[in-house]
Structures are given as structure tokens and as C-alpha cells.
Amino acid sequence: MKKTLDIKKLVLLNMPYILLGLFATNFGEAWRMAQGADASEKFLSLVAVLPGALQSFWPSLHPLDLLVGLCCGGSLRLAVYLKSKNAKKYRHGLEYGSARCGA
């Protein structure tokens, strides 16, 4: 049997990653607004610009900002996926190795 794709379930499961990605666009906006010629100067002025960029919850629609948001949301999704895959490898409630308790 072929499984049907449930759009509502897919959107609800990925909603936290989408919202985090939209919020992370503000960090991209702060990076663009920071003064400096190279990365070290931008990091120093980023502290001063960050409160102004985070003042509004609305996402920035600049392509660089959207790329930063996509990377942040995607990396969080990847971390959660890898953590869930790693959790399935362990035997829950069973002892590891050759040590045995009370025999």
C-alpha cells in the first residue's frame, strides 16, 4: 500500500524549525548592519547592532538573511534527527559490555 502524504502533519512537525529559521533572519540582518571591513571588526560591532536587529520579531526578507535563517533552522533539524537516530542504537534497560551484576 502506498502511504499518503499528510501535509498538515508535516507542517506541524516542522513548525518549530521554520519559526526558528524566520527568527534567525534577524541575526543575518544584524551581521549586514554591523560596521567593519573584515570578520573580526564585524564581530566587535555586532554586539552594538544586535539589540536593534532583534527589536522586531518580523523576519528580514533580504536573501542573505533568509540564507542565515535556512541554515539555522536546517542545522537544528539535523541535530534533532541525528540525536533521534543515535538514541535507537542503545539497548534501554539492559547492561552494556561484559560486566554482569550478581551471578
UniProtKB/TrEMBL annotation:
Transmembrane segments: 12-31, 66-82
Keyword Transmembrane helix attached: yes
Highest taxon above the source species: Bacteria
Keyword tags: Membrane, Transmembrane, Transmembrane helix
Protein name per UniProt: Conjugal transfer protein TraG
Organism: Ruminococcus bromii
